[in-house]
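hey so i finally got around to running both of the ones u sent me last week. sorry it took forever, my laptop kept dying halfway thru and i had to restart like 3 times lol. anyway pasting them below in the order u listed, first the sequence line then the structure token line for each. didnt double check formatting much so if smth looks off just lmk and ill redo it

first one:
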Amino acid sequence: MWKILRRRRRGPRARSRTKSERAHYALHKESARTIVHERLEYWTAHYGVTYGKVFIRDQRSRWGSCSSKGNLNFNYRIVFLPPELVDYIVVHELCHRIEFNHSVAFWDQVARTHPNHAILRRALRSLSPSLVAGKVESPPV
């Protein structure tokens, strides 16, 4: 009885990945890792921050995230983005190592290197649904 109630509270389960989706992820995961590590090396020198582990994941709705332990997660679909959007995502997550929120102080850190961060953020938001669906188009940057 308890397990049934617990499942009901969580809501419907997420759709599992198809074989072709898993293959697509496997094909591009290491390329994404290489790109992310290159950009992290560059931007950590600029910001003077450290981070924990780096994970490349198949996420449906996020481009990246930063844990309270300092671990960074990035969506493997980052390989399909233009370099300026990749840099914005990496800088955004690194700035969470300085300010672990989206306060004015956080956005001031992002603006140090990306004063046009609002435009880049909008470009990412417009791209997200098409990338999740597997359609890669050029962003309106």
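and the second one:
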Amino acid sequence: MPSGHLSVLFGRNLDISSEELAQLEQDKALDLLYEYSKNNDILPPETGREQFQCLFNVFRGNFDAEWYYQHPAYSGPITIILAKDQNREGLPDPSLVWEPLLHGPVETLETPGTHLSIVVEPDVADLAALISGCLEKKPNDPSQMETI
């Protein structure tokens, strides 16, 4: 996995390269990433190694899906929600990444937190409120929506 993708997960550039991680056995690499995240206050203090494994598995699944899945273009409206406190250094504008697949209007919103913190308290409450607001604005008529 490219180190740029790990930077997204951790919200900052790592002190270890993906090449160095690739040379380690999977459990040792995850131990190293877990310790890095704990020592650099990336994860909430109560996050255990098992929970970190689950989070990493989800991240890895998302990475694989992004890498291998090719979706046809979508012509409906879409909302991109960005984590406001996420380090985006060296990463492309998210709306430009999606541009080849989108032929409808794109709205970009921000929510407090990082890629990891928006799914736990207190940031998840802000994310939930933002999503609720988006859903209230969307049409209720299924014929006006596309399924992706």
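quick thing i noticed on the 2nd:
The CA atoms of residues 12 and 56 lie 16 Å apart.
anyway thats it, ttyl
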